[in-house]
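FAQ: What does the model actually see?

It sees only this:
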Amino acid sequence: MTNMLPVSRRQWITCAFAAGAPALAGLALAQDATYPSKPIQLIHGFGAGGNADVVARLVGQRLQTLLKQPVVIDIKSGAGGSIATNFVAKAKPDGYSLVMLTGAHTVSAALTRSLPYDPVKDFAFISTVSSFPFVVAVRAEHPAKTLADLMAMARQEPGKITFTSVGVGSTQHMVGELLGASAGVKLLHVPYRGGGAPVQSVLAGDVDILADTLTVATAHIRSGRLRALGVTSAQAWPSLPGVLPVAAALPGFEVLSWLGLAAPAGTPEAVVRLLNTETRRALQDPDLLKTLADLGSQAAPNSSLEMRNTVEQDIVRWRGVVDKAGIVRQ
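And it is asked to produce this:
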């Protein structure tokens, strides 16, 4: 007869949990294996027709085909993209709520004293999608023919020359601030909610300077309605070969930004890996690559860890710019 030793309730629960753990793990893997089984929401925080919106729709279409589920674009604009970012940070971490982050994610972290989310810890980064410079432009009728002309006007009338952005804390905002700081002049910031509003205000003569993506500006530059005074890449950009870099007038000036996909922290690793793999596949599509190039962007896929490192490094970099430019943190 076998001797039976008494078993405490805690021991019994521990043993039962250990016995059931493989089954629970198997269930989790099985659930991940079914992903995606319903539409995916891809959210961004900028206006319709802007760079984030256009690229989100392009990438969303490819992912929809690859994942065999609808990818629905949802705009939650305002606060330099932070409204959309905060929404996804607090969403259920199941892979069905994604955000198209922009470089503004790191600018906001550098410029804002307190955000409702942690810009690194609250996200499972998937992959960057594209990289691009900005263009500094004025309407065709503007008296400034060159960037040097424009900065001379700003020196003569401090605070009178205005520039657009897609919101306080956006990278466009930082481009304008850095432009003024580098030239030693004071420019007046006029923020919009994004999309086509900034370029329309410049074309109407309401604001002097457009500081925005090539996605928004290129068609108006080619039509002659806007005069490009410089691109923020260190060298001339392929889609605007005749436009000098801002660094030609302000040595050392360079701003490149990016777009990238992220999910809420806690999203299963298997889901993040799948999304990274399919995003990379989407960015190999020749038609998508050509469209991105026409929009003034370059495909820039990377790993989840590399995107996280990019975010961390850019926050440090932009904090340095904020301090150097003497910008007051909000």
